[in-house]
Write a structure and sequence with these properties.
Distance between the termini: 14 Å
Strand order of the largest sheet: 2-3-1-4-5
Order of helices and strands: EHEHHHEHEHHEH
Number of domains: 1
CATH topology: Rossmann fold
Number of strands: 5
Radius of gyration: 15 Å
Helix content: 55-70%
CATH class: Alpha Beta
Shape: globular
Largest sheet: 5 strands, parallel
Structural class: alpha/beta
Length: about 170
């Protein structure tokens, strides 16, 4: 069964997901990278076609990713789609959290179109999505101050031993 990582932009889903996948011997799939590989940069897509178009492409990427037995990292806003929320209902969903103080240096100079307003934009987006993230999560890990290697090992151990909905 796949493991799905969700959480705000800059929380470390991709880095963690790669490590968890390596530990578990599973493929790693990142929906944002799937979109970029097929359609160009996210910034380009937002600029040329708008967020609605990007979200439609994202939904297709999520469907493709969830069809695989893999460790899957979803883009921060993928959980806004109600179909994606339904798809995650019976899966192992790991919410990756991070404090504003820890994420601030990670998003400096970012090309993420929704973060042109910096840390204030990040905080606003997080608050608008927090309830959905928390509702969908099976387990939560925070990347604010702990090494990702240790967190990845904990997630992999949980994935090996726990029932999906525990």
């Amino acid at each position: 069964m796949s493991i799905v990582l969700i959480g705000p932009m800059g929380s470390g889903k991709t880095k963690l997901g790669k490590r968890v996948a390596a530990i578990l011997g599973k493929p790693f799939v990142d929906t944002d990278r799937m979109i970029v590989a097929k359609h160009g940069t996210i910034a380009q897509l937002f600029a040329e076609f708008g967020e609605e178009h990007f979200r439609a492409l994202e939904r297709v990427a999520v469907e493709d990713a969830l069809a695989q037995d893999a460790v899957v990292a979803l883009g921060g806003g993928a959980i806004l789609d109600e179909r994606t929320q339904a798809d995650l209902a019976d899966r192992r969903v790991v919410l990756i959290t991070v404090s504003a103080e820890a994420v601030a240096p990670r998003i400096v100079g970012t090309k993420r179109p929704l973060l042109t307003g910096g840390i204030d934009a990040w905080k606003q987006i997080l608050e608008s999505r927090r309830d959905i993230y928390e509702r969908l999560a099976t387990r939560v890990w925070d990347t604010s101050s702990r090494p990702l290697v240790g967190i990845a090992e904990e997630i992999a151990e949980w994935a090996r031993t726990e029932n999906p909905n525990d």
